[in-house]
Amino acid sequence: MNHTYIVAHNAFTVSAPDDLAAWKELEPRFKPFECRGGDTSSLEIRIISAPLPPCDGESIYRPEHDGIGFITAQAWRLADGSLAMEFRHVEECEPRVMMKMPARLDHAEIVIAPDGDSNDTYFLSHALMIAYMLGTSGNGTLLIHASAVTHGSKAYLFQGRSGTGKSTHASLWTRNIDGAELLNDDHPVIRFTADGTAMAYGSPWSGKTHCYRNVAAPIGAFVRIVRGKENVLRQLPLLNAYASLTSSVFFVPFLSDKLRDVRHAVVERLASTVPCYEMHCRPDDDAAITCCNGLKR
Amino acid sequence: MKIKKGFTLRTVMGQNIILAEGNNADSFGKMITLNSSAAMLWEKLKGKTFDVDDAARLLVEHYDIDQEQAHADASHIINLMMDKGLLDR
Question: Given B8, B19, B23, which is nearest A243 (Cβ)?
Fold first, then answer.
């Protein structure tokens, strides 16, 4: 079946066999973004189930060590210029999912090895996220590792490395602050509108929290969450804001120089137009209240 | 020695900065600002194997300073970059 989805005004098409378990599980996450109109898709993604073809090209990315989270990815540049990536579990030797994109980055083929594995959904979701990121990065679209809430027509994005408590902080907002709602809990999308407003969009990638909302809001602030003994919010100077954003924007190490330049320009523009903060906090109700009051001041 | 892979020199808000790019890379808080001569050396030396003499030669070519001064400046810049973990020996 063919489906067309629009995430942050980027239309893409996904085709997959109807009986593919991993896509069956993911499809409801994409459903809120489905469009039935005749939008022209700029990215076509085809998912198939087949034994993984060998990747014999120039190795362009190899993790230096296992154990970054749950997933290990390797990348190659093939003779025809296309990009190939393999995903496997950290503990496991056999790759489960392979993705291939031509140098134009307007098409992706994702191959899932037969005999379904319980991690396939995770790998497929990750492969789809990378395909979306690569396919849209030329127009300045960014995915950011953050938990996002909306409040009073604005979006607030909480950044931080895994385990620092950004999801916890977001849930403290929704519990303690009237009108605060979760927008996305892992990878919202950021894009500037034609009139120069930085917007946050919900996406089909929300980590462990099932929050796949087709909602957009202008970004009110970025807040880097740091564990602390007291709840203190401080605004970051411009350069630190840039560094904070750069380290949270989803990134693949083999991005071309041209796409790196686009990414840099968007991050610099974000840092100079949206206030960025650092919030040292405890995981308590007062943290959300202190943060919210500080941002509205 | 050589400049390590994974670091990019960028002009951000009018300043020359070095930052590792990555997904929540350990880079946050490790941003390094370079002055114009260090930035020039970075641009000219990236991807190459070099020593203090090569860096000093570049400083002499670009700035109106003598050999002795250039050598002292080059060692100073290289030591700082080494301390910050930007170079491989």
Answer: B19
